[in-house]
Structure prediction request, 201 residues.
Amino acid sequence: MSPAPLRLTLVRHAATAWNEGGRWQGLTDNPIGPNGEAQARALAAHLTPPYDLAFSSDLSRAVQTAELALPGHPLILDPRLREYHLGELEGLSAAEMQAHPGFAAWQADPWRTPAPGGNSLHALAASVRGWAEDLPDGARVIAFSHSIAVRTLLVDLFGLPLVPQPNYPIPYSLRVGHTERVELEREGQVWRKAESGGGTA
Prediction:
């Protein structure tokens, strides 16, 4: 008999001031802003606790989103759910990134080449996929993470192509909005997407 499927809900954190100002955050530990607080509280109406396990990146914006959306629910902080480490590019707009002397080399192969002073998308994939593969069969799990981290997991799990984007430095065509939910299932070693949930913004 095959094990019961794992059911995983991935949630991107609510908005910060840098999000609203078009600044790329990476590992910079910004809190959510007033709009983000409203988004996180609104998210609560779309969740159906209790979950067997609730995880969050240990960065403030993910933790605060989780605490507002799941008040009182036990929360496990796991650094493997952190956002992409953009190094010297953190705090910059997309246009400002392009003026950085290390930008062109990174953009030539962002999957394998680290961002200047940061890491590669491949390293991020190894981190977040390692977390996902440790989840127990049959559990109902929710995890609060970050835009690039969530999308990198999806790219890695499903072998999605890297597609360069005009005026956008990450080569993913899929997007995940603030507090948007992505539903996945894992049966044995096979992952599949379930119905996804919209954001609240």
Summary: The helical segments are 17-21, 34-43, 60-69, 94-98, 103-108, 121-133, 147-158. Residues 121-133 form the longest helix (13 residues). The mean pLDDT is 95. The beta strands are 6-12, 53-56, 76-77, 140-145, 181-187, 190-193.
